[in-house]
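Risk mitigation, structural track. In case the binding assays with zinc ion fail to produce interpretable data, a predicted complex structure has been prepared as a fallback.
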Amino acid sequence: MSTQKEDAQAQLRPEFVQYLPERLEAGVLYISRRYNTAAHLCCCGCGMEVVTPLNPAKWQMAETNGAVTLKPSIGNWSFPCRSHYWIINNRVHWSGAMSDKDIAAVQARDRRDAERLVRMPQGFAEKLRRRLAAAWAALCRWIGGGE
Ligand SMILES: [Zn+2]
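Fallback model:
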């Protein structure tokens, strides 16, 4: 029933970091709470980087006693491997490779979620704009001060 390869990961070790490292190590799920992002190498062993933004429109992370669960599943339909698995309490639960129909359904859900997020009353978009504006102002001050 499994499409799992020999070098596939059965388990991931969560590592809480501030910044995601440039080179990810296989079998490690890097989590940056500060930047609300997690990343790992595709659990099939293909070496592709899977970056999962942690926000209401993307993935939700739950942690209990150092065991991490990501919801919804990880569907790497844009990778050649098309791996599809769940990360539940640090363990990788394999699902069959996604069919084109599954992929279309996930993409439709992504679009709906993104639209819902945009419609949120005090949306992230506004917050993000303010944050970018502040960062830009700080950068201008820094450049200006250096002269
Ligand atoms: Zn893969």
